[in-house]
Design brief:
- This is Response regulator.
- It comes from Flavobacterium zubiriense.
- Keywords: Coiled coil, DNA-binding, Phosphoprotein.
- With 248 residues, the protein is an alpha/beta fold.
- It has two domains: 133 residues, Rossmann fold (3-Layer(aba) Sandwich), CATH 3.40.50; 110 residues, OB fold (Dihydrolipoamide Acetyltransferase, E2P) (Beta Barrel).
- Helices cover 32% and strands 30% of the residues.
- The chain has seven helices and 15 strands.
- The protein has a five-stranded parallel β-sheet, with helices on both faces. A five-stranded antiparallel β-sheet has the order 10-9-8-12-11, with helices on one face.
- Helix 3 runs antiparallel to helix 5.
Amino acid sequence: MKAILIDDEKRARISLSILLEEYCPNIEVVAQCENLAEGVKAIRKYKPDLVLLDIEMPGHSGLELLDFFDENEIHFSIIFTTAYNEYALQAFKFSAIDYLLKPINPEQLVEAIQRLEKQKQKLENYTILKENINNGSLDKIAVPSGNSLIFLDTSKISHIKGEGSYAEVFCSNGTKNLVSRNLKNFEDILCKDKRFMRVHKSYIINFEYVVVYNKSDGGSLELESGIHIPVSAEKSLSILEKIQIIKR
């Protein structure tokens, strides 16, 4: 499998090249590039299977790479190498994009390569990642729905219901969107925000819309819309603590 490394730090490129040679002998590094412009030229020339791409580089961010290619030209997968903060890492997970946190761990590198070989990533995933990182906060998230990318104001999300590998996102204006992400993906990115909590194996709720907590019959939460959300028994204490914090 042919690979190209794009990173503005020479030391990082050399280190990653050595790791690949030692731990991933099936990967052939055909080019090393110090900026996005060089990377784009190398991709067109060598047509790699894999691009290992730093995000934070002078001039162009690594997130702009796909802007230089038409959809039918993208026959390579991307693994991002990054030193990004915690929020951005949640955006990676939500977007189902592989990333390696610097300094790169050899075992994680091998695992990322193995995942890549098993499943090709979708262009849609890169778009979601780019939008969510560019937003830079949890004020708005981009989510996939059918052939569309929907932008949701997180303050207007009342609750999310998990349906296997999909989730239904319900908003305060009465709209709902079926999204091709499971509930765990939403939990990873939204529940860092104190407004949100996974209260049941099938539900995440926004406490801003909770009006009643009913502790009888196993426990449930009533939202402003009148919908009742079941509560897992082990979440009862956490819910009471959350209500205390939210209502202060």
